[in-house]
Amino acid sequence: MQSLKSLFDRKIQTLFPLVLYSVLLLGTSRLVLDSLRSENSYVFKVYGRPARGQGGRNKLPMAVLPEDRIGEDCNVFEGKWVWDNVSYPLYEEESCPYLVKQTTCQRNGRPDSFYKNWRWQPHRCNIPRFEPLTLLNMLRNKRMMFIGDSLQRGQFESMVCLVQSVIPKGKKSLQRIPPMKIFKAEEFNASIEYYWAPFIVESISDHATNHTVHKRMVRLDSIANHGKHWQGVDILVFESYVWWMHKPLINASYGSPDSVKEYNVTTAYSLALETWSSWLESNIKQETQKVFFMSMSPTHLWSWEWRPGTDENCFNESHPIQGRPYWGSGSNLEIMKIVHDALQKLQINVILLNITQLSEYRKDAHTSLYGERRGKLLTKEQRANPKSFADCIHWCLPGVPDAWNQILYSYLLKDYQNFS
Questions:
Q1: How open is the CA angle 135-137-141, to the nearest 5 degrees?
Q2: Catalytic residues
Q3: Which of 17, 94, 193, 263 is the most buried if burial means most Cβ atoms within 10 Å?
């Protein structure tokens, strides 16, 4: 019995210093934390407090891990669409109040939802998963602007939907100030914006809602009215294609605004990009600004191109084109070359996001009969005539534009340290 008591006493003597050490450590930690909360904290005196009001929320050093960066040998534009109904879609229609009716296909009556569950997978590498807080931290005290037509507006809405869920109610807003839409994340002092400019240069179609579709006239050497809205924007994402392709010829002026004549579309497009390039070289500061150009968004107007012997369009398509290369006639190779040549000549760096081929496979993801025409949903009679009324240009959301934004996000991550 005595030996048992001695053993117990020895154990107590052994444990006592450990217990005492733990109590002291806990007390010290509490003092440190209390000190950190104090306005007179040494840490805050040396490093400063997190900013309040001006993007102070979550203001911590942001580490980008090597596996989150795409390598120089990673071609994110070559790959395939893989079925993923576990981690995709990245958001749902009902979770994003900022979507317009043109893109909410399921809400508008589309019976299937397969188009939401395909993930773009490059052949030899991976695209980092989209992390909303990471993007918002990259955008802290910055502006990102999408510039182009309604397809670019879809990419803007996709980006807003990808980030908005992590922002508390009352700390986010969407303003419509034609020709712009501005989404603000208050606690990051960040904005994601959209600017309507279907030709990039100025035209008679520049009013955001009251514009003509069939009668188009472009001022090929005029961009200043647009450019004043782009000055100082930290991340600019341009796109312009489908409005040029209405007819082989387009009315345009070059030099005197009163001297209007018909131009071949490819000639006019090339002149417009020259005007845009001159504006970039005069206004962009590469140390603080980044510029991207989205390649053409493809159309799927003729089903015989992917399924020979048929005479339909994208209506009722439910799966991507798989197992073979595909390039539709709606994607103009001459325009692609003009874009490539213009970017090669630029004195500043503009990153081309070549989303055309990956989007070519997605004949299933257009709004088809489940979007809007002239601001209204299709009538029952119009839906009964898909050959005339199916929209095989615009995309459902969630959908293909989310992949475009994941690629944009991966490029921002890749250059984050240099850019920040």
A1: 115
A2: 150, 391, 394
A3: 193
